[in-house]
Amino acid sequence: VYSTADAEGVHVRFADESVCIGPPPPRQSYLNAPAVLSAARIAGCDAIHPGYGFMSENPEFAEACEACGITFIGPTAETMRLLGDKVRGRAALSERGVPILPGTGALTEEAEAVAAAARIGYPVLVKASAGGGGRGMRVVESADRLQELLGSARAEAKAGFGNDTVFLEKYLARPRHIEVQVLGDGRGNAIHLLERECSLQRRHQKILEESPSPAIDAETRQRMGETAARAVAAVNYRGAGTLEFLLDEDGGFYFLEMNTRLQVEHPVTEIVTGTDLVTAQIRIAAGEPIPYKQEDIEHKFAAVECRICAEDPATYTPSAGRITGYHEPGGPGVRVDSGFMAGSVVPPYYDSLIAKVITRGQDRQHAIQRMRRALLEYLVEGVKTNLALHLRILRDPDFQAGRFDTKFLGRLLAAREGGAGVEAPGGTL
User: Fold this and answer.
1) Cα(40)–Cα(176) distance, rounded to whole angstroms?
2) Residue 86 CA to chain centroid, in angstroms?
3) How far apart are CA 106 and CA 128, in angstroms?
4) pLDDT tens-digit profile of 391-421?
5) Is 261 a catalytic residue?
6) Could you give the residue ranges of the DSSP H alpha helices within 162-306?
7) Pairing state of beta strands 2-3 and 20-22?
8) What is the rounded distance in angstroms from the CA atom of residue 373 to the CA atom of residue 331?
9) Were 83 and a residue from 77, 89, 211, 363 both cysteine, which residue would form a disulfide, CB within 3.0 to 4.6 Å?
10) Within 10 Å of residue 417's Cβ, how many Cβ atoms?
């Protein structure tokens, strides 16, 4: 399916059949459930894969699919309501032995928030109960800013997700962000597919991911994986999902939230474990068992993923427009998942992600070296990109040594004016 803004899109050009579902604004097209379901009916579909955005975590859409006799390739609406909602998810998984940070339930009154923040201790994090991608999140350093930031978080959550419910959580100053991939069959069986390191973020948006994480040892890896698999099995989770954790400086891990869908960075897991998560989703939705055994899941390789976005490297604002020149890297151990080509238009209405570059190596340094070589081969003309930013990260000695946390990228960017430039297609950073 496509909106009129994506009429020239690669996914439209190469699809066997495509149906236009509306004008560019998401609520009139990609978030328009009746239009999507009508397209499925026209095309004679018996299942819908929701991707990893828009309605992929929308329980009402999952119910509408089932009501129309169409299989929703993902968890049940009931499970999404339980785990996709951050407030309910925290409570449900805490009851099943998953460690969580001190926090609150859904906040309804300001006085309640003031009292809870004082109890938890500043700084605290205001978080939207729905959605993701860092929207509806605010760090509150002191009581005098709580009311202001609570209001702005609610407004952003309402605009982005149609739900202004927020809650508070203890804010860790310098954590690592580690997530665990899971697969469940919906009948009480589940496995984990190891972890992904996701600490390289800007404004809570992931920029670079890798596996294995350089921050955890084999014992911690096993405990995190077993904790995640046990928890989702207990709620009869169906399909692919990810439990996100914060890892503190002492090695303790705490549940952050669950994404009840496939994630952008799923190729990292596929490469290091030799699995195919999308095929697994489809098979499980068709009623088949999980196609892998826990004992078969291991780190066969190291992998790094860089998200290549159409954005101005100076301001980080999206850079919409027509791509006039395009060349993807290739060679051994290089995978590119992209949605654009020469002549494609990057529309201003959606996420600015152009492609994901994933490299495989025998170890972390091998994967990093391949990534650096691949990015130097990547050519995108006509729009601005963050290629130079990735090359700067890969060159940084702290990153190469695995010494970083979720604040690393902010520190790197703050220091860039005084540093030397880094080579990149089209210029330096």
Assistant:
1) 41
2) 15
3) 9
4) 999 999 999 999 999 999 989 988 865 444 4
5) yes
6) 218-234, 266-273, 277-285
7) parallel
8) 10
9) 89
10) 6
Q: Do 87 and 167 form a contact (C-beta atoms < 8 A)?
A: yes
pLDDT along the chain (429 residues), means of 10: 95 95 96 97 96 93 97 96 88 91 90 94 92 82 94 90 90 94 98 98 91 97 96 96 93 91 97 98 98 97 98 89 97 96 95 96 98 98 97 97 94 69 44
Q: Other CB atoms closer than 10 Å to residue 47's CB: what's the count?
A: 13
pLDDT value for 417: 54
* Long-range interactions of 61-69: CB distance < 8 A, separation 24+: 61/33, 61/36, 64/33, 64/37, 65/37, 68/37, 68/40, 68/41
Measured CA to CA, the distance from residue 207 to residue 348 in angstroms comes to: 20
- Looking only at the bridges linking them, the beta strands covering 253-259 and 334-338 are unpaired
Give me the pLDDT at residue 121, please.
Answer: 94
Per residue in 217-251, pLDDT (tens digit) is 999 999 999 999 999 999 999 999 999 999 998 88
- The secondary element (H helix, E strand) that includes residue 390 is helix 387-395
Q: What is the pLDDT of residue 416?
A: 65
Identify the burial level of 383 via C-beta atoms within 10 angstroms of its C-beta, where 0-12 means exposed, 13-18 middle and 19 or more buried: buried
Whose structure tokens read 């202001």?
148
DSSP classification of residue 276: -
Q: Are 206 and 307 in contact (CB under 8 A)?
A: yes
Q: Which two tokens stand for residue 414?
A: 């703050």
Structure tokens at 348: 């201003």
| Beta-carbon count within 10 A of 329 CB | 18
Residue 247 and residue 175 in contact, taking contact as beta carbons nearer than 8 Å: yes
| Termini Cα distance of the chain | 37
Q: How many whole angstroms separate alpha carbon 308 and alpha carbon 386?
A: 6
Catalytic site residue from 196, 238, 261, 370: 261
Sign of CA dihedral 97, 100, 106, 107: positive
Residue 338 burial (CB count, 10 A): 16
CA 84-87-93 angle, 5° bins: 75
β-strands 124-128, 138-140 pairing:
antiparallel
